[in-house]
Amino acid sequence: MNTPLRRVGVTMLVMLLLLLVNATYVQFIKAEDYRTDPHNARVLLDEYSRQRGKIIAASNGQVLAGIEPTDDKYKFLRTYPGGAMYAPVTGFYSIRYGAGGMERAQDEVLNGSDPRLFVRRLSDMVTGRDPRGGNVALTINPAVQKAAYEGMTKKGYTGALVALDPKTGEILAMVSTPSYDPSALASHDGKEQEKAWTEFDADEKKPMLNRAISETYPPGSTFKIVTTAAALEDGMKPDSEVTTAANVKLPGTNADLENFGGATCQGNTLKDALAYSCNTAFAEIAGGLGKDKLTETAEKFGIGQTDLTVPMRVAPSGLGDLAGKPQLYQSGIGQRDVRLTPLQVALLSAGVANGGTVMKPQLIKSLLAQDLSEMEKFSPEELTDDPAMSASNAGVLKDMMLASEANTKGGGKNDALKIASKTGTAEHGSDPKATPPHAWYTAFAPADDPKIALAVIVESGGDRGLAATGGTVAAEIGRSAIAAALGGG
Amino acid sequence: MGQPNSDPAGQYVTNPPRDLPTRRGTELAMLGFASFIVTAAFMLVEANQEQELSFAILWYGLAYMAILTVAHLAVRKWAPYADPLILPCVALLNGLGLVMIYRIDLARAEKALQAGREFSANAPKQVMWTVIALALFLAVLIIIKDHRTLTRYAYTFGLVGIIALALPALLPSSLSEVNGAKVWLKLGIFSIQPGEFAKILLMIFFASFLVSKRDLFMAAGKRVLGIELPRARDLGPILIAAVACLGILVFEKDLGTSLLFFGVVLMMLYVATERIIWVVVGLSLFAVGALIAFQLFTHVKTRVANWLDPFADPTGDGFQIVQALFGLGTGGIGGTGLGAGRPEMVPESSTDFITAAIGEELGFIGLCAILMVYLILAMRGMRSALAVRDTFGKLLGGGLSFAIVMQLFVIVGGVTKLIPMTGITTPFLSYGGSSLLANYILVALLLRISDAARRPQTSAKPRPQQQAPLAEAHTVMVERPK
Description:
The structure holds two protein chains of two kinds.
Chain A: H1 2-29, H2 31-36, H3 41-49, E1 55-57, E2 63-69, E3 76-79, H4 87-90, E4 92-94, E5 98-100, H5 102-105, H6 107-111, H7 118-127, E6 135-138, H8 142-154, E7 159-164, E8 171-177, H9 182-186, H10 190-202, H11 211-214, H12 224-233, E9 247-249, E10 256-258, H13 270-275, H14 279-300, H15 325-331, H16 342-353, E11 364-368, E12 374-377, H17 391-406, E13 420-426, E14 438-445, E15 452-458, H18 470-488
Chain B: H1 24-48, H2 55-78, H3 86-115, H4 123-143, H5 154-170, H6 173-176, E1 185-187, E2 190-192, H7 194-212, H8 214-218, E3 223-224, E4 227-228, H9 232-251, H10 255-273, H11 276-296, H12 298-308, H13 319-331, H14 354-361, H15 363-387, H16 391-415, H17 433-454
Antiparallel strand pairs in B: 1-2, 3-4
Helix pairs in contact in B: 1-2, 1-3, 2-3, 2-4, 3-4, 3-15, 4-17, 5-7, 5-9, 7-10, 7-16, 7-17, 9-10, 10-11, 10-16, 11-12, 13-14, 14-15, 15-16, 15-17, 16-17
């Protein structure tokens, strides 16, 4: 009986050998495939347990998205000291819901998988430290962000504010209200995350929508900057004569286009038309310029670009249908199908402020390695191939906007700031006359050496309802942001 | 031997009685080694989970050591010549299983805490089961002083084994079904898998039966196609038993146990008859049976489909096996480290899939080491079977040893996608009372057989002195009675 027993012994050896060979295949040859398979939740969990890099404001080093060690299995908790104020800038980072905003756009740097961080990771491996992520330094100016956010939330406005340095395109403030606190989404408590997400998601005011770059609105009279620029480039002068009529018929239709409040315009020059925001004048100017000239100038301001990122994707702005005169008339005053993001409106002012050249907006100042050494620095770039207008025309338009500011009502006026601006009161909705308009304000300052250009939108009249205008509702917020930028340094 | 010496009795004493070393000291040292590894493993888990060294591991450690001490003393007393490596192998496997169960408990507790669910830890229960298993281990060592006495009750064991196996199938699902497998007996607060015990009872029956009919199998019978078949009435009981087992197991949807039984029966048949043709016939029958089962049962089809391509449905049917592969792959060669992986992501990681958890945290190296410990355990058992003098002991010892490897092959092969996955426990490692109890009984029997194998022969029964023929007898001086 011993011979078969010995053979069974050999069989047992063979069976074990098979298991070992197969284990080798699974844990050695196929290991990498299994480890990195997208269905393998360990990959994700590992990433969430890594020390993620910070998002900071480059100007003063203020932490916008930080990291805190914890005792639980994820090891590190994402913190947002600025909470809702900076949510449109930072985005969110959630174990259950992934990442959004800057957290998503710069995920590779923040989680440490960016190839440029490799050398650093190698030394981490040798020293046995857990790999860490790199840091992202933003162009945000906390003082401006704070002034803008407080201005928007003080009265519970729904809307957005974008401010940038017109010479470099660096975004100084990006506010969207109502906002949300990303800390709740970063919680390690699954229930808390879920509760927060459901709450934000169900909120009909869409707190997680970044209105500054992801939403487009009819720009209203702020669009007259484009129309004016096109007109100046076409040879018009500030003192060229324009209509003062209270209303004009849209060519070929029975519909009227009228001025705000149905009044006749004060002054009959182009300069006056902009200063007093005369609709009939600009409708006729747009009609006279024609589709091509208007579109061309708009494009030079960046309108129509579909691939703009800051590095979050910016919703494309567009002019819509300009096929005929009626469309041109209405589009010339920023109505009908014209849709701009608040960022794009800010770029209109920025273009004028920068002598006609629109700089590409950017939110990242530099990318930093784990030890805060600089990995990549962003330098100013022009947004479009050609300037929106000549420097001299930009100077002319600046003077016109200074005059416009002088005629604009609203709080926060301060002569020392030397603001050039344009307001807008944009009708929208299916029954525009009964729907509170969007209040716009776009400006730059100081006029002779611009350091900040911005756009403010307060959706649906803010607290003034149908009576709202850009000047009464939006201007005050814009002025306080400018004051914060120039006063605070 | 050399020249016949002057001692007439000398020619019969070819192996003069000498004090064979019992090697109990070796066993103690190896047990110490095993407990060192297990204690270190417990500490690693705690360190990697970043917890303060808790009283829990102190209590687990002490309980584990106490069990080892009692087992060792019992072997010293009741099986002093037993193989010194069998118990340390079992102790190491049991201990590492306990570490892994405790480690998965920590993860489960945290998950439960996050979800606000109730959580019941498995590790304390496993310790309790080990204590009960130890009691059974002692009982077997004490009651069965000679494994040959088991042959007297072979038919009884066979009958009880079949009934135990059949019971869950006959009982209503409410008393016998857990997670779709109808293999349980729910007795109030705790439940057992009678199949685990039937495994041993039936092996005893088969061993005894095959030994008693061995000559018939080898000689009597007709030749069909060159194969000498035993007479049907001799083969009958074993066929009935085998078919009944397989039928019941198919009915209970317990493919793993079915496969295990099949393998063990085939192996014992081969060893008893010394004819490879039984293996050939058996495997052919298995192939046919497998084909039929594949056609008839959807759950068999699902298992095969999941084996061929688990990634076809990674979140549904293939989920378990895919998660196990992810765990093994993530562990890679060196593993993530004890307590530093995420073994709780694999479903049933404390029971069926515990080797996936080990492969993840201890890596390929750790998994191989564990497999090697099993191999040593089974090989020491096989060695005892080879050395033991009675055929029943050989067959039973061989069967028990093979059963360990067969079970390991079925479950680890399933977890690592070598063969289709069939639910079965990993001996000593997996969480589970029945499995632990049954396997401790199995080890007690192996120790008993190895004790018999290494026990000095002459001490058992003095051989009757053969009388020399009268004519050649020496003249013997007899003292005159006074």
